[in-house]
Design brief:
The protein has no helices and 33 strands. The protein has a five-stranded antiparallel beta sheet, with no helix packed on it. The chain is globular and about 75 Å long.
Length: 427
């Protein structure tokens, strides 16, 4: 154990809720910290490593502090930049005397702007939506001058987590601000809700850590003037089990990514000539009583993974340090391609449901689509989708508030193909 870090502030400030390290910079979030005006808005502490070891050098808090903003709930660091999320920040319109609660904000701190004078530039990272309870800044990651920021409309204590994220860039211009390059919402992609995010050089990784999901997703984008997403790819677990929570942990660098779940970690490498991410190594828990992989990090040689062993009455936390070249090879494992090859209609989730459920379907090519719901007598009760849609996976929510309990059939028509499934409404 080289060094133990303690809060420079109060012992109950939430110090260590989020951490990030890059080069000689360590950022630690303390979302319950109180500022000098006795406002519990949160803080982020910066430690710099020099020849004498780690030293507490800076502490950040919002210039306009707000009670319970949770500044420091998330932090990220890379190349002399630190990002801090404040997901419960409120938008206050002083002219209209109105408040939009929990829109969230993210802040950027640039240590490279003026090294000679030690000046640090602060800038806001906003997507200017001002949506109530969006909680922008719930999770974030950075790679150079590009970052990905997630949202969480479900609340900070919920596992279901964000359903929208933004790719942002801080260009090297006179203005140190961040520009939004792309936003993706639940209705635009196949991921349902988003729980964790990670950023490589030209890929934003996102995952929904809910028990119904066993996938993570890689959104590949261009680092040009537009920064737009040009493809997405499903990352499927090397093995499946109930409540896997694949994507509970995500980490990435320029060419390598790691996806963790309940009892596993999969390592991926970017395959240049195939323009996709391919799985290279696999690490599994070695007993059925081990929870393994919900937190992890890696470098070029090693993978560090947390684990908990034992029964509910006698649980022992552990940390595992593994060499990448000693992990099980995963090169032969199939990895989903960017584009689907056939039409698919997935089982609605949850099922049974009350009163809403989500229906996902996949199109191999652009098609005229109808998604309809019928009761058991054949009476149509809803048309959810009607029109032309692009290839890829789509999601739609069905609301049965006005319907009675019973079995319902949902039918997908895409071109000449027709698929049906059943779902049950229980009130």
């Amino acid at each position: 154990l080289e060094h133990t870090f303690e809060s420079p502030g109060d012992s109950d400030d939430g110090f260590g809720h989020s951490i990030a390290v890059a080069d000689s910079i360590l950022a630690v979030g303390a979302p319950l910290a109180v500022n000098e005006d006795d406002i519990q808005s949160g803080k982020a502490y910066i430690f710099i490593k020099n020849e004498d070891g780690w030293e507490h050098t800076y502490q950040f808090s919002p210039e306009y502090a707000q009670e319970d903003a949770n500044f420091g709930f998330s932090v990220a660091a890379d190349s002399g930049r630190v990002l801090v999320g404040a997901p419960e920040w409120d938008f206050i319109d002083e002219v209209e005397e109105d408040t939009t609660a929990n829109i969230g904000r993210a802040f950027g701190y640039d240590f490279t702007w003026d090294r000679d004078n030690g000046e640090i530039r602060e800038s806001n990272i906003n997507i200017h939506m001002n949506r109530e309870n969006e909680r922008y800044g719930y999770d974030l990651d950075i790679n150079g001058s590009w970052a990905v920021v997630g949202t969480n409309p479900e609340g900070l204590s919920e596992i279901s987590a964000p359903n929208r994220f933004a790719i942002v860039e801080q260009p090297r211009l006179a203005n140190p601000g961040w520009n939004t390059r792309e936003t993706v919402s639940r209705d635009d992609g196949p991921h349902g809700s988003i729980g964790t995010v990670a950023m490589s050089r030209e890929t934003a990784f996102i995952a929904p850590p809910v028990t119904r999901t066993s996938q993570a997703f890689a959104y590949n984008f261009d680092r040009g003037d537009e920064g737009v997403i040009h493809s997405h790819q499903e990352l499927n677990p090397s093995h499946d089990r109930e409540h896997l929570m694949y994507g509970k942990a995500l980490q990435a660098n320029d060419t390598t990514a790691a996806v963790g779940g309940r009892d596993m970690v999969d390592m991926y490498q970017w395959i240049e000539d195939e323009d996709r991410w391919g799985r290279t190594h696999i690490a599994h828990a070695n007993t059925d009583e081990m929870t393994f992989g919900s937190r992890m990090d890696f470098n070029d040689s090693f993978v560090v993974v947390n684990g908990v062993t034992g029964s509910d009455d006698d649980r022992t936390p552990q940390v595992f340090w593994m060499q990448q070249d000693q992990l099980t090879s995963g090169e032969s494992e199939p990895v989903a391609k960017d584009h689907p090859t056939q039409i698919e209609l997935h089982q609605a989730y949850p099922n049974p449901f009350n009163p809403t459920t989500q229906i996902d379907y996949t199109l191999p090519e652009s098609s005229e689509v109808q998604l309809e719901v019928f009761d058991v007598t054949g009476r149509k009760v809803s048309t959810l989708v009607e029109g032309t849609q692009a290839s890829g996976t789509h999601s739609v929510t069905f609301d049965g508030t006005e319907l009675s309990s019973g079995v319902y059939i949902y039918r997908l028509t895409a071109g000449e193909q027709v698929l049906t499934r059943q779902m049950t409404l229980v009130k």
